[in-house]
Amino acid sequence: MPDSKRPNKAIKVVIVGAGSVGVTTAYALLLDGLASDIVLIDIDRNRALGEVMDLSHAAHLHKARVRVGDYEDCENAAAVIITAGVNQKPGQTRLDLVKTNYALFRDVVPRVAHHAPDTIIVVATNPVDVLTHAAYKLSGFPRERVIGSGTAMDTTRFRHELGKHFGVNPRNVHAVIVGEHGDSQLAVWSLATISGMRLRDYCTAAGIEYDEKALEACATRTKEAAYEIIRRKGKTNYGVASVLVSVLQPIVTDSDAIMTVSRVGSYAGVEDVALSMPCKLNRHGAYQDVPLLLSEEEREALRRSAQSIKDVITSLEEHLKPAEEKAEATEKPEQA
Ligand SMILES: NC(=O)c1ccc[n+]([C@@H]2O[C@H](COP(=O)([O-])OP(=O)(O)OC[C@H]3O[C@@H](n4cnc5c(N)ncnc54)[C@H](O)[C@@H]3O)[C@@H](O)[C@H]2O)c1
């Protein structure tokens, strides 16, 4: 990496979960040079050790060390990325997946918070919005220090799709996916631009057709990309690893980048939920919303997305209530 991008002090990053996403993230981080100390924590210590041996044999070429650690090693970490968790199995409901991964978070997050009370938690485990909300509650951290990778991944995919459609480098396409990292996400067409021009104006200027159907197909491919990749190779790992490194970049370099990441807040009238909207990121975390002037239709789609995440959070909280409390609630006579 160029020296200008290289952090000038020792930066420790801990990755909890040395599975496919965790290890690919460690490798991307190693190549990027953002961290000087990369620690992997996994319940399967032997697996983590094998991965670390493989990664660390050439780590000196990248001026970083990679090691297996435990929760004590989270102390003074600039960020702790959580990738531990299971993937959705065929036939499994989303709520079942949430219950399993929530149980894991209940074990992991308090330990991270105990050893690294000032760190920034970055959540990648799915369903990422619900678990970002869970990590916020379980850590007791302020909301800017609990960040879900959210639709940063979908936004990158969307720019890739639009770039391909228009024959433009995705870096020159400004367009975002907001809401849930999942089926209710929405593409913000009203604010998408190329070279400072709304897409319709760009088409007029470039003398090309504004093909609404083809553009909708770009958004559909974005939403379905993970399903398609999983169908073909069984998992997704490279894209998300690059995205996680790009989320760490403004944190480590304190550079106020705007990214669509998930954090807890009130969105389109739905309170206490986590979803992705553009946020400013620096060493304090995702510290500031960058409000979008959404169209009426987009605002309603965002509300639906927020509500669908909130429904899962509510079902999870219901499931977690002690049995007596549940019984009491059902026995209570209705108020006149
Ligand atoms: N946010 C995104 O864009 C995105 C993309 C891809 C995958 N994911 C999610 O990331 C998660 C991990 O996916 P993967 O493909 O790496 O799975 P994986 O099965 O390859 O790895 C999961 C790892 O977690 C470890 N683990 C389980 N319980 C643990 C615990 N209590 N403490 C520490 N480690 C524990 C396992 O031993 C395993 O090594 C899944 O929830 C997946 O859906 C998110």
TrEMBL record:
It is an enzyme of class 1 (oxidoreductase). Residues 317-336 are annotated as: Disordered. It comes from the Eukaryota. It catalyses: (S)-lactate + NAD(+) = pyruvate + NADH + H(+). Residues 151-318 form the Lactate/malate dehydrogenase C-terminal domain. CDD domains: LDH_2. Gene3D superfamilies: Lactate dehydrogenase/glycoside hydrolase, family 4, C-terminal, NAD(P)-binding Rossmann-like Domain. InterPro entries: L-lactate/malate_DH, L-lactate_DH, L-lactate_DH_AS, Lactate/malate_DH_C, Lactate/malate_DH_N, Lactate_DH/Glyco_Ohase_4_C, NAD(P)-bd_dom_sf. Pathway: Fermentation; pyruvate fermentation to lactate; (S)-lactate from pyruvate: step 1/1. Keywords: NAD, Oxidoreductase. The keyword NAD applies. Its EC number is 1.1.1.27. Residues 11-148 form the Lactate/malate dehydrogenase N-terminal domain. Belongs to the LDH/MDH superfamily. LDH family. This is L-lactate dehydrogenase. It comes from Humicola insolens.
